[in-house]
Amino acid sequence: MTDVLILGGGPAGAVLARRLTGLGHGVTLVTCARRPAVEGLSLRAVEGLRRAGCLEAVAAAGMPAARRVDWNGQRTALNGEHLVDRSCLDDALLRDVSTWASAGAVGLSHGTVAAVRRGKDGWLAVDAAGSTLGSGSFLVEARGRRAPNAPARESGPRTLAVGRLYLGPAEQAGSAAFSFADGWAWLAALPDGRRIVQLVIDGAESPARADLTAWHAATVASLPQAAGWIAGCAPMGEAEVRDATAIRRSPGVEADRLRIGDAAFAVDPLSGHGVYAAVAWAFAAAAAVNTLAADPAALPAVERFVEDRCTGLFAHAADAGKQFYRAEERWSGRPFWRRRAAWPPAPLPTADRGIRRRAVVVNDRIEERPVLVTPALPRGVLAIDGVELGPLLDSVASDRSLDGDLAQRCGQQLGQPPGRVAVALAWLANNGFLPGGAKPPSAMTTTMKNANS
After folding, report:
1. What's the burial of 210, exposed, middle or buried (CB within 10 Å: 0-12/13-18/19+)?
2. Residue 233: closest CA among 186, 316, 165
3. pTM of the model
4. 276-305 pLDDT, tens per residue?
5. pLDDT in tens, 106-121
6. CB atoms < 10 A from the CB of 245, how many?
């Protein structure tokens, strides 16, 4: 039995496996094949994979392809996106995992999990025949939307993505997105000639499954941009549908269990945050698992951290999607657009301003520390250039001298180099946080540590 059992070998599961092995934990990762799909990865999602050491996955993502967007009657060329065959990406992630497995850090198991059982010694995952696929003291559920459902905390309008693959002449890779009266479309072309047309629609407008392919063909034919995208191409199989509803579930954090990635929350594809959020969540989850493995009594702080992190990532993605939907004004009265422009019903809460005690990541462990919260930085800033801001502000407030070097005096009190303290003081001054007219040193280049990074 290993320390951690991870169910799901997608970006969230693979990145978490990498992070945990780097922290000295033994990991068993259980994965199974998924159906073919073409997806677009944002530039920062691929950078997150690079930071995690998933170099095979980064290579599989290739170079970003050009992307254009037709929205609200205007055409724009935005930052590119990495177009990937999801099966190839998952295979690359498994090659990354296999590299770590060869070093004895990760055990890799292939199979479909039929049941997960909790015993006195930990968790056991078995297949339909009852054969053991993996075991571990701590369970991480990372099977995305395929994971057994946990109670929904928040859900957007029911949304479906109906896609179909086509094969045509090999051309340069590229993608496009455009809006239409009852939804929006994402188009992608891979260098090998494969093309996809994915139509995102309201769940209430979905045709019967038996009529799905005919409906997709008729809708594509009625949309000149989509029809032109696949001109001269032959369909590859039938149209397929998948759930694309934005939903946040309970992260299910316990002393020996946690849900991550789409198993905890899944975002609307229009937000562009899907894989990026999964990777970011895996980085945060590594600190949560590492903390509980060393100190189960830290569960309350970990619960607060996980809940805040999950809620924040989901809210940010939901708000991003909402702004895109509101930007399309031509069909604002149509049900698809009206429902999504109104969700979530409330805007993101404005963060207060000041020192607040929060559960944060410090040296790969979750601890409660004072952080500086601002409306622009709602998760808070723990430190600038290695100098924690809470203690520094206390030091400034207690300083009674009107002469001399403030950075020198605070540095002596905090046991920090005056140069670093000067950088932190300059940042505080520039953001209006120095009390009583205290004068900082001249502004310098700063290194900011976000509380949840």
Report:
1. exposed
2. 165
3. 0.88
4. 888 988 999 999 999 999 999 999 999 999
5. 899 999 999 999 988 8
6. 17
